[in-house]
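tmp note - Metallophosphoesterase
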Amino acid sequence: MAANNIRNVLVVSLSRFFIERLRSSRIVAFIPMPLRIAPARTLTSRIGKTSHHLYHGRVSIFPRSIGKKIAATAGATGAAGAATALLGASRFRLAVTTIPMLDKGTFRGRRNEFRILHISDLHMLPHQQLKQLWVSELAELEPDLVVNTGDNLGDPKAVPAVVQTLSPLLTTPGLFCFGTNDYWAPAAPNPLRYLTGKKQKHSDQSMPWKNLRAVFKEHGWEDCTHQRHDFAVDGFRLAVAGVDDPHGDLDDYSLIAGEPNKDADLSIGLTHSPEPRVLDAFAKDGYQLILAGHTHGGQLCLPGGKPIVTNSGIDREHASGVSEWKDSILNVSPGLGTSKFAPVRTFCPPTAQLLRIVEKGGGGADDLPEPTVDEIEVGDGFIEREIVVKGL
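out:
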């Protein structure tokens, strides 16, 4: 399939713009460390041979107060491990993936790609200024479409922060669906339930999700919660549909069942949690691309980004990034946040994804357009350098 030629470019860094603003605001302590380019590693993924090269921006972002508490309450080894996990929740990454999945001639000579910025699981708290600044500059990627797969809110008072953060992106056509954390405030997790894969219970406190939905819709984003939409972006025709969060058993696929519009250039299915029953339904109906979030990429992963659990019904191989799901392409966002009760990530950095949808080539990766630095540069020095390695 076309998925055999999927190429990933993973980029991690912070802009000088962010560093200057954050230093002046004194909300965190910055300890700059040398940037380094990791040795090139070629991995074989389940969807074919794909070259992965990582660019690491090493900047320590750690509140002094938290560091003191950790040092005072744990031994040196434990403190180091806790610090690493907390830092992992603030080292934001942009992942650029080129997916040759459209038939030749789909673009009708009008363009050579369709860019989708996929964001998910912000779990925003009002004080998270670093995250707010980082996400707001993603608008400089100039995507054709923004897709937000839910769990925006981490606190009932976070709606203004989410709106301000996403405001530069709200001028771009967008799609959204919500997760249970948009409806109900999070509850302190039970580690045993999490590690055994059992569903976590949410609190009974309602979140102001209707206010957030109103802002999204006012700016033209399409609510895909149990709805189907057909529209065009600069002549590129889309057929989209979505469900409410299946992790909370809020989904009813029968409300959107059926094949997507056959005249569409690309069909997209949205769900917050990548539950297999929903993925199967989208694939059976013929949706080409399915977008989901919820898993946080595992959040607590082993080296190499291997998730311990997925907090959903999906298997660990499909818990993060682009893969095949039957005859569809599935992308599960690793997300950009965590619950405020578990603000840690290990070997699974918070990530935004730029999906570059292109036509299928005749000879594989050599036919794919190169994602140049100028095309995807964000902010002042956000992407210091991009390493592109064609598929094998």
